[in-house]
Amino acid sequence: QVQLVESGGGLVQAGDSLRLSCTASGRTFSNVAMGWFRQAPGKEREFVATINWSGSTTLYADSVKGRFTISRVNALNTVSLQMNSLKPEDTAIYSCAAAVINSGTSSPSLYNYWGQGTQVTVSS
After folding, report:
1. Structure confidence by residue, pLDDT tens digits, 29-77
2. Cα–Cα distance between 21 and 23 in angstroms, integer?
3. 95-2-54 Cα angle (round to 5)
């Protein structure tokens, strides 16, 4: 079992930055790929970013590429999402997820564990 707890959400203005963190507990964190997903009201859950077990490979949704950066510190069991140049359309509940595979993936069905999520609201 892996427990995931997100933090760092909040209300910001367009153009601002925000850093989300996800702390894992319960099993060896370094053996899992991690991802961030988001869901806006009335919309489907959307892939945001993923990182492989070692942190050497990342993948981003086109909508956030160049603005968001995913990173991880295995020694601290933490994965982070640095979000810059935020837009109102980035408003959503952001959730981190863990997949018991080495490579990152954008497919939510491959993730085994999910956090509760943290709200990010970007005002115009």
Report:
1. 778 999 999 999 999 999 999 999 999 999 999 999 999 999 999 999 9
2. 7
3. 80
Distance CA 115, CA 123 (A): 25
CB 49 within 8 A of CB 39: no
Per-residue pLDDT tens digits for 76-120: 999 999 999 999 999 999 999 999 988 999 999 999 999 999 999
Residue whose tokens read 């933090």: 7
Look-up of token digits 């491959």: 110
Which of 39, 33, 35, 65 has the alpha carbon at shortest distance from 50? 35
The answer to whether 78 touches 22, Cβ cutoff 8 Å, is yes
Q: Please list, in sequence order, all residues whose beta carbon lies within 8 angstroms of the beta carbon of residue 57, skipping any fewer than 6 positions away.
A: 51, 103, 104
Burial class (CB in 10 A: 0-12, 13-18, 19+), 45: middle
E strand or H helix that includes residue 67: none
